[in-house]
Amino acid sequence: MESKLTSGVIRRKPPSSRYYPYATRRGSAKESMMKDEVVRLGVELSLSVAESMFLLCGDNRALFCFGYKLSRHVLPHQDPVLERLHRVFDHISLKDLKSKNGVCNQNGIDSSVRWSFIRNTWKDFVFGTIILHRLVIVLRKKDLSFDERMFSSFIAKYKKVLSNIEDKLRPFKNVSEANGYLRETQESDIFHLWKSLFDEEAFETTRRVIKSPYNLGRDSAKKKLEKEAVRLGVELSLYVAQSMFLLCDDIRSMLIFCFKLWRDAKNDLNPNSPVAERLLRLMHYIYLKDVKPRNGVYQNETTSVQLELAGTTWRNFEDGFTYLDLVVLILRGEEENCLYRREFTSSIEEEVKSLEEKLRSVKAVSEANGFKREAIKCSISEMWKSLFDKEAKEASQTLRVIKNGILRDLFLPLLNE
Questions:
Q1: Which InterPro entries is this protein grouped with (predicted)?
Q2: Mutual orientation of helices 251-268 and 391-416 as an angle, nearest 10°?
Q3: Which of 119, 235, 250, 351 has the smallest CB count inside 10 Å?
Q4: pLDDT per residue over 294-352, tens digit each?
């Protein structure tokens, strides 16, 4: 049989026809083109942030937490990209949203939809911010020897992120626009924030002056805010105690109330939160010292009228402690990039005022059951005054060791059901 000869010739693949738009430029022209593109992409990301803010308008907690997730542990606080996103938040909040006084078009969008939007988009925003940060670092170093293909790859990934965000915003576009979002108007304002991105003089000014758009300022101002945070923690705790006294004749209802507060704190607050730890210690203290000795009835077949009333306060407690936790993180120096420090404290004040109004009608019942505000305030103040002490972090380690025992003391009867 005659064998067939096979060719041993190695054929070269034809050169790639893929187009890299920056490869044909040289020197300053290439650098200028790249910088203009990065500035434009920064404006695009900021417009998506602005549109999201108008969507979340009317739900301050969702709005603030959106900004918190966007900035938390993303980039150093002096990063020019994150600093400009902070300024966009500041600009939109003060110029457009504050004037609305929380009155926004809901258009059938309830709280759960807003929180779902935050969960589904914040990683896209963070990823886009990180990519933009890398592009800025490369161009600011004036290192144009890197591979243009890599630069084009970063741009492609970034545009994919923008596309993902746009897809997630599209179903709510009518809501954002009804709340005042006008892309053309916002684009003009936002561009002015980004056009100095590669201005060295502006960069040095930012490094010297701006730590974040919500700089804590001098130590005296920080100390004042720390005292305010402690005061607000005491106020919230007093209303928790008053509610426990209101429910103390029905132990099961009281434990359900406490369990829901603890569960929400565990889900919403940061891991090892000093605020959540103090909430747990407060409930344990009131239960063992004042409630348990009363030998209240453990009812498990009737619906407590008092519990229904206390149920109207759950959201106020949840929001109040969430805002307080964020303020504490900022003041402890664990979250330098968080937004709306002062807005958080004013929001806590609003929740405290709402709690006072809701519980005023049953204050006499709590007092008849042993609630003495001033006496309890002294004990609670001792618990909160160490909130910003350096030793408090070590104390929290001890608390974690005994936390399981506290939880058993409080909630074992519910678990036994």
A1: DUF1184
A2: 130
A3: 119
A4: 665 556 554 566 777 777 888 889 888 988 887 887 777 644 444 445 667 877 898 89
